[in-house]
Design brief:
- By secondary structure, this protein is mainly β.
- The chain has one domain: Jelly Rolls, CATH 2.60.120.
- Helices cover about 5% and strands about 50% of the residues.
- The chain has one helix and eleven strands, in the order E-E-E-E-E-E-E-E-E-E-E-H.
- The chain has a seven-stranded antiparallel sheet with strand order 1-2-3-10-5-8-11, with no helix packed on it. A four-stranded antiparallel sheet has the order 4-9-6-7, with no helix packed on it.
- A hairpin with a 4-residue loop joins strand 6 (about 65-70) and strand 7 (about 75).
- The two termini are about 20 Å apart.
Length: about 140
């Protein structure tokens, strides 16, 4: 994944309190978009629609509240990974679960392997033991 040289924090107009540092995206000719986001206390993204895209969220600090049209509702915390495939279409929202602390997260959007799949959602908590394998390969894990 290429990191964009002119990395910047952009305030998203329709998401007050939601700042995004874009790492890579379609303008770099890749089939995915990755960003580091900081969502201020109580802020977030109201319900909006996606289709034909897959999303992975890794919360680094704080907690992110997720709701979607598939009936899923959860709070994603550090050590957890959320996967959502928009498939043929899903509406969802994401908000900082705290009224006092910001949430920092890593978000990756990818084109799905196949078009026309049904929407899907999963969330996984990784134990400390499961976090050890990337460290053996030289990765830094919080």
């Amino acid at each position: 994944m290429a990191i964009v040289e002119n990395q910047r924090a952009a305030e998203i107009p329709w998401r007050p309190g939601y700042r995004r540092f874009t790492l890579t995206g379609p303008e770099q000719g890749v089939g995915c978009s990755a960003s580091l986001s900081i969502i201020e206390p109580g802020a977030g993204a109201p319900t909006h629609f996606h289709d034909a895209a897959d999303e992975v969220i890794i919360v680094l600090e704080g907690a992110l509240e997720h709701q979607d049209s598939m009936g899923n509702g959860s709070v994603i915390k550090p050590g957890e990974v959320q996967y959502m495939s928009a498939g043929t279409g899903v509406a969802h929202s994401e908000f900082n679960a705290s009224k006092t602390e910001p949430v920092h997260l890593y978000q990756i959007w990818m084109l799905p392997e196949k078009q026309g799949l049904l929407p899907a959602y999963d969330q996984k908590n990784f134990s400390e033991a499961e976090k050890w394998w990337p460290r053996r390969m030289g990765a830094t894990v919080r």
